[in-house]
Amino acid sequence: MRHLFRLVSINFTLARFGLDQIVLSIHFFRPLYLLGVINPFNWFRSNDLSQAERLRLCIESLGPIFIKFGQMMATRRDLFGDEITNELEKLLDQVPPFPLQQAREIIAQQLGQPLEQAFRSFDDKEIASASIAQVYGAVLPDGQEVVVKIVRPGIEQKIRQDIEVLMMLARLADRYWDEAKRVKPIQIVREFETTILNELDLVREAANANQLRRNFEGSADLYVPFVYWDYCRPKVMVMERISGIAVSDVNQLQAQGINFEVLSRKGVEIFFTQVFRHNYFHADMHPGNIFVAAENPEDPRYIAVDFGIMGSLSVSDQRYLAENFSAFFNRDYRRVAELHVDSGWVDRDTRIDEFEASIRSVCEPMFQRPLAEISFGQLLLRLFQTARAFNMEIQPQLLLLEKTFLHIEGIGRQLYPQLDLWDTAKPFIERWLSEQLGMRALVKGMQKNLPYIAEHLPDLPQIAFKALDRIANDKLNVELRSSQLDALRHEIRSANRRSIRAIIGGSFVISASVILGLDGIAPIMVGGGQLLVPLASAALLIPGIYLLISSYLDD
C-alpha cells in the first residue's frame, strides 16, 4: 500500500504541473489528447509558467532520484532544446534549500562542537543547493577558505522509498515484460541503489576525492580540491574552496578568451585517462560539478567537485571496451561484432556477418563528422533497434560509464560543436592498448614483478627441489594407483577363469556320479559288456576333479 500511495502521489504531481500536456503533445500520444482536456488540473491552471518551468518544478517536487534524471537531461540540448535545458540547468545547483538553522545543527552534531569553535566564520547564504546536499562557504581557524558540504536532512528515507517503488516496478517488469531478460531491470535498479546510497556518505566522498587528487597530482588538465579530514564526517565534508567559471557559462568563458578547442579536447582526454589508465572515473560530471580555471586561457584547466559517485570497471570489461573502441575507430566492424559475441554481450549463436552489417549501418554515418552534425537522437534509436534485433543484453555494470559519457558528449556539444570526438580519442585508445598488449606491457610487467622475483630468488633452489619432490611423489602415487588397478583387473580375469573351470569340473563330476548311480540301479549294457561304464565315469570324474582342484588352487 505504501508503494501504491507513492505511485499515486507521483501521478498526482505530474498532473498538478501539467506534464500530461507535454507528453500528449508528442506525436505518438496525440490520440490520447482527450485525456488532457478532461484533466481537472488543466481547467484551473494559471498560464503564467512555461512548460519548461513546470517540468523543472515537477521534478523538484518528486525528489532526488527524479532530479538526477533532470540533471542528465540538462546536458542534452540536442534532444530537448534550449528552453527546457536552460530551465533544467537550475537543478544542478539551485534546488530549493533547506533552512540555515538545520544546517548549523547538523554541523555541530557531526563535529561534536559548536559551529563558532569549528570555524572562524560561516556564511549564512548557501553557495549551492543540490538534490543530495547543500554547500556553504566558511573560513577555518587558520584562515583557510573552505566549502562545507552538508547532507540534506531526511533525504535517505525519501530515496529508499523511491528505490522500493522502482524495485517493485522492476520486479513486475521482470515477470511480465518480454524484454526483461535483455534489459535486466532488477539489476539496473540495484546498481542505481548502490550508487545513490553511497553518495549519502560524505566520508566515502572525501576518500574518493583524495584518490582522484592523487591520480591527477601535478596535472595541467584537471585539478581536484584538497580535503580537510579533521572536519569530515558521514554527513559533513570540508574541502578547499576553489575559484573557477562554471563550464556551462559559455558567455563568461568567451569573455575570458578561453580556447574552446583545447578545452574540449582536454575533456575527452580526461575521460579516457580516468576510465582506462586509472580505472577510476568521476561518474557525475554534469555541468554543475565542473569548472574551468581561467588563469591560462590558451591552456585552460578543469576543476572538478562533488565526488559522491565514482566508477571503475573490471579488467575484462576494460579490455573489451578498449578493443571495441579501437576496432570502431579503425572501422573494423567485424572485429566489433566478434568482441560483442566473445564477451557474451550478445548470444553465442549470433551470425557475425549480419551483426557486422547492422553495426556498420549505425556507426558509419558518424565518422569524420563534428558533434554538431551527428543526430544523437537518431543514433540512439538505431542502437536500440540493433540491440533488440540481436538480443543484446544491457550491462548494468557499464551504466555509470555510459551516463558519464553522455555528460562529456553533452558538454562537448556546448563548448565546441566542431570537435571530432573519435579523432580525439583514437590516439589515446591505441596508445593505451599498446601499453597493455605490446612490448611496453611486457617490460612494465617485468618491472612490476622485479621486487618479488628478487625477494624469492635465493629460495629458488629449495623451491625447485620441493616442487620436483612433490612431482616425484605424485608420480609414484599415480604409479601405485595404476599398479593397483592392474592387479584388480588381473584378479577379476583370474576369478572368471576359476569360476569357469569350477563350473565345468563340477558338471563332469556330477555327470560321472549320475552314470555310476544309474548303473547300480539297472546295469547298463554297452556293446555287450559292463567294463565300459566305469571307464566312461572315470573319463568324466578325473578331469572334473582336476578342474575343481585347479580352480581352488589357482591364484
Q: How many DSSP helices?
A: 25
Strand order of the largest sheet: 1-2-3-5
Helix content: 55-70%
Give a count of the beta strands, DSSP E runs of length 2 or more.
10
**N-to-C terminal Cα separation, in Å?**
82 Å
Mean pLDDT: 76
Query: Which secondary-structure class do the elements indicate?
Result: alpha+beta
What proportion of the residues form beta strands (DSSP E)? 5-15%
Low-confidence stretches: 524-529
Which descriptor suits the 3D outline? elongated
Largest sheet: 4 strands, antiparallel
Radius of gyration: 40 Å
Total number of domains: 4
Question: Layout of helices and strands, plus pairs?
Answer:
Elements: H1 2-16, H2 19-24, H3 33-38, H4 40-44, H5 51-62, H6 64-73, H7 77-88, H8 90-93, H9 100-111, H10 115-118, E1 121-129, E2 133-139, E3 145-151, H11 155-176, H12 180-183, H13 185-198, H14 202-215, E4 222-223, E5 236-240, E6 245-246, H15 250-255, H16 260-278, E7 281-282, E8 290-293, E9 301-304, E10 310-311, H17 315-329, H18 333-342, H19 352-363, H20 376-389, H21 399-415, H22 421-437, H23 439-456, H24 460-521, H25 532-553
Describe this entry's structure for a reader.
The protein is of the alpha+beta class and 555 residues long. The protein has four domains: 2-93, no CATH class; 100-254, Phosphorylase Kinase, domain 1; 255-437, no CATH class; 460-553. It has helices spanning 2-16, 19-24, 33-38, 40-44, 51-62, 64-73, 77-88, 90-93, 100-111, 115-118, 155-176, 180-183, 185-198, 202-215, 250-255, 260-278, 315-329, 333-342, 352-363, 376-389, 399-415, 421-437, 439-456, 460-521, 532-553; strands at 121-129, 133-139, 145-151, 222-223, 236-240, 245-246, 281-282, 290-293, 301-304, 310-311. The strands form three sheets. Strands 1-2-3-5 form a four-stranded antiparallel sheet. Strands 4-9-8-6 form a four-stranded mixed sheet. The protein has a two-stranded antiparallel sheet with strand order 7-10. The longest helix has 62 residues, at 460-521. The chain is elongated.
